[in-house]
Each structure stands twice: as structure tokens, then as C-alpha cells.
Design brief:
By secondary structure, the chain is of the alpha/beta class. About 45% of the residues lie in helices and about 15% in strands. The chain binds pyridoxal-5'-phosphate.
Length: about 400
């Protein structure tokens, strides 16, 4: 009989929609003469910075083409430790670091380490955790919805506490995909206290650690002591490097990192050494890193403000202004007409965007029918002018004409 793990996993709706858009976009452009707006992407349109791609060539020429050391080369781990130290995280050694194929593999290994367990997670939840990571590990997700209140996304701590007893893990993703919420130190501290109280481990997905805006600060859960915290990082977003598949997982419990290292070795044999080298350079060349990230973040900050300023009059004070990542998660209840009979709301909302030449991800991808009126809009891969035009089309063609928030 086939391992049930393989019958539980599915294709993320994000991948399905990207396939569909490949067909829809050129037809829309041919019909309208306009430029289709790709707001569905979860990756940067920018190329990987040259200081990193150069380092790959040099690493290949230097012969870093043989079997890797499982769990990561010592110099890769040192680069991770230097990067963590630059953000104030110390007291960690090589034995606390594991090099993985992207954040996704890091998350999968941690979930696998708690196979079959119940995982409490804040909804909306990154679709890959729902469709792949949790089901592959045989874990069940137990969502706690973030509460949308007056433009804020609040944690229902009573519900978290009610769900923690007997849970294996709490999955925290800050900055969060898809909402853009950045969890505050006070929120993380309270969550950590609850997990300690109930003996629950934490998997902290910090994929968007560098993407914070308007004075918000990313707080790593590694700031809190304890062997129960797994922080999962990736180079995908910070270095426009989604195709290189490299990341790292950090835990103060060296014994568990040793076990995850064996898991990583079993699955992949280790991350390609010349890629490890290039991203060791990426993380430790402070001046190059700064020269790449600073203008990028300024650009993203501006785009975030453009979108917020445009949508605020339509969505009203309920609109959450994301403090991190590069997404808006819009609640369009009351702003789009009801779906025609026989058509699901989520599909209808998506169709309105596609008809207006805009690709978005339906909210249902992040937690099911509860988010049928939501869409995720990404500002990671669109230039300013195209964005402005897309926003105008959105107001004219997607929302009910003259719709005002609260209507
Ligand atoms: C919330 C979140 N975590 C982790 C990842 C992992 O990315 P990767 O596997 O490319 O490192 C992503 C990618 O989209 C993400 O959105």
C-alpha cells in the first residue's frame, strides 16, 4: 500500500493559479492592449545580486563540487552564526545550525520530527504548510484565526492557550505570509510563555526576516531561551534567490539539530557546496548586503504605501497596513457582488481580478472557505507604474462601483 503521506499532499493553489495565468495573461493583453499585472508572486522580480552569482562561479572553480558535509559546511555555519550575531543573537555554535534546501526543507524536517502531532498555527497560513508540509508529516493543523480589528491583526490568546495542551508544535510565521503581520516582542514573549507552560515546541518561520517596513522590527524567536524553539530561515527572499534552494534551521538543542542533520542527509545528502559558499558570502559581505537590501526595502516600502493609500479610501479603516513580508491580505466582503448561483465565492472573486488583468491568490488557499472573500496581493514583482495602473483597474473593475468601506 502506498505510504498515505503521498496521498495526503497536494499541489498548492498558488502553483495552479500560476499555471492558469500563463494562459490567461497573454489572451487578456491581446484583447485589451494593456499590461497584465502579476500580483500573485511570492518572489522578487529582481535578479540575484551579482556579488552572489559571482561567488558561485568562484566556488565552482575552487572545486567545491564534491559531496557536501551533511548538515552544512563548517564555514557555512560560521556565516550563519555571524549573521545571527549581527542581529544580536549569540550563544550559539555550529552544533546549533543545520543547512537545508530552502526554508521549506527546514520546516519539513521540523514537522517530520513531530510527525503525527497536532500543530497550532495562526490563520491565514502559508498554503504550502497546509497542502504539503503538515500532511506530509502526518501532522494536523489546528488554526487560530488572527482577529481583524480596526486595521489590526490581533492574537486571541485565550484560544491559543485552550489549544496548546497536548499540541506538539506552535507554528509562528513573522513577518507573516499572507497577512504581512509582524509579531511584536510582547506577543512573541507571551506565546513563548504559554508554550513553555504547556510543554509545546515552537517552529518559528522567519523567511521574511529582512522585509519589515515603517519602523517595524523583526524579532527572532531565538531571542528567547530554551531548547524548544526551532527557527527556520531561508536565503530565498532576502537575496532574490528562490531557485537556489538554500536556507538554515537553528535550535539551541544540539542533540535535535544532530537528529535533523541525519534526516537531511537521508533525504538529500546535503546542500550543494558551491551554493553554500555563495550564500556564506551573501550573508557575511556586509557592505554588499547593505547595498543590495537598502534600496530594495525602500522600493518595497514605497510600493506598500502606494497600495495602502490607494485602497484605504475603498476598504476603510479595517484595511491592515502590512508591517512586513510583501503582501496585502485584503478582505473584500461587501466590496464585491455576491457570486452567481453555482459559482464558489473564491473563484468568483478571483475571476473579477483576472478579468481586470490582475493576478492574485484567492484567500481560500490560506485556510479554506473562511477566507473566500479574501485575496493575497503581492507587491514583490511589479514596477511602480504597472502597479498604479493595476490599482486603478482594481478600483474601477473589481470593486462594486462607488463601494465605500463599511457599506
Ligand atoms: C512563509 C514562508 N515560509 C517559508 C518559505 C520557504 O521558502 P523557500 O523554501 O524558498 O526557502 C516561504 C516561501 O514562499 C514562505 O512564504
Amino acid at each position: 500500500m502506498l505510504n498515505p503521506a503521498f496521498t495526503r499532499i497536494g499541489l498548492s493553489p498558488i502553483v495552479e493559479i500560476s499555471e492558469r495565468i500563463r494562459d490567461v495573461a497573454p489572451r487578456w493583453e491581446a484583447r485589451t492592449g494593456g499590461k497584465f499585472a502579476f500580483l500573485q508572486r511570492g518572489e522578487l522580480a529582481d535578479n540575484t545580486p551579482a556579488y552572489i552569482t559571482r561567488a558561485i562561479g568562484q566556488a565552482i572553480e575552487a572545486g567545491l563540487t564534491r559531496y557536501p558535509k551533511s548538515g552544512g559546511e563548517p564555514w557555512f555555519k560560521d556565516a550563519v552564526l555571524a549573521r545571527l550575531a549581527a542581529t544580536g543573537l549569540t550563544g550559539l555554535g555550529r552544533e546549533n545550525v543545520l543547512c537545508t534546501y530552502g526554508g521549506q526543507e527546514g520546516l519539513q524536517l521540523v514537522f517530520n520530527a513531530f510527525a503525527g502531532g497536532r500543530v497550532v498555527a495562526f490563520a491565514p497560513i502559508w498554503s504550502c504548510v497546509i497542502d504539503n508540509i503538515a500532511p506530509y508529516a502526518g501532522c494536523t493543523l489546528d488554526p487560530v484565526a488572527l482577529v481583524e480589528r480596526d486595521g489590526a491583526l490581533e492574537i486571541d490568546f485565550a484560544q491559543v492557550e485552550a489549544k496548546l495542551p497536548g499540541a506538539a508544535l506552535l507554528y509562528v510565521n513573522s513577518p507573516q505570509n499572507p497577512s504581512g503581520k509582524v509579531f511584536s516582542r510582547a506577543e512573541l514573549s507571551r506565546l513563548n510563555d504559554l508554550c513553555v507552560k504547556h510543554g509545546v515546541s515552537i517552529v518559528s518561520d522567519e523567511a521574511y526576516e529582512d522585509f519589515v517596513f515603517g519602523g517595524a522590527k523583526h524579532i527572532s524567536l531565538l531571542e528567547f531561551p530554551g531548547d524548544h524553539i526551532f527557527a527556520v530561515f531561508t536565503c530565498s527572499k532576502s537575496y532574490a534567490a528562490t531557485g537556489f534552494r538554500i536556507g538554515y534551521t537553528v535550535c539551541r538543542n544540539a542533540d535535535i539539530i544532530g537528529k535533523l542533520t541525519l534526516g537531511e542527509y537521508t533525504q538529500t545528502g546535503g546542500v550543494v557546496p558551491f551554493i553554500q559558499k555563495a550564500f556564506a558570502v551573501a550573508m557575511t559581505s556586509e557592505a554588499d548586503r547593505e547595498a543590495w537590501l537598502r534600496p530594495l526595502l525602500e522600493k518595497f516600502n514605497r510600493r506598500r504605501d502606494v497600495i495602502y493609500d490607494h485602497l484605504r479610501p475603498v476598504l476603510g479603516p479595517a484595511l491592515y497596513r502590512p508591517e512586513g513580508a510583501f503582501y496585502f491580505f485584503l478582505n473584500l466582503k461587501g466590496l464585491v457582488p455576491p457570486a452567481p448561483a453555482g459559482m464558489a465565492t473564491g473563484e468568483f472573486v478571483l475571476q473579477r481580478f483576472l478579468d481586470a488583468g490582475i493576478a492574485v491568490i484567492p484567500g481560500t488557499a490560506f485556510g479554506g472557505p473562511e477566507y473566500a472573500h479574501h485575496v493575497r496581493l503581492s507587491f514583490s514583482g511589479i514596477e511602480d507604474e504597472a502597479l498604479e495602473r493595476a490599482l486603478e483597474r482594481m478600483t474601477k473593475q473589481v470593486f462594486i462601483s462607488g463601494a465605500k468601506a463599511g457599506a
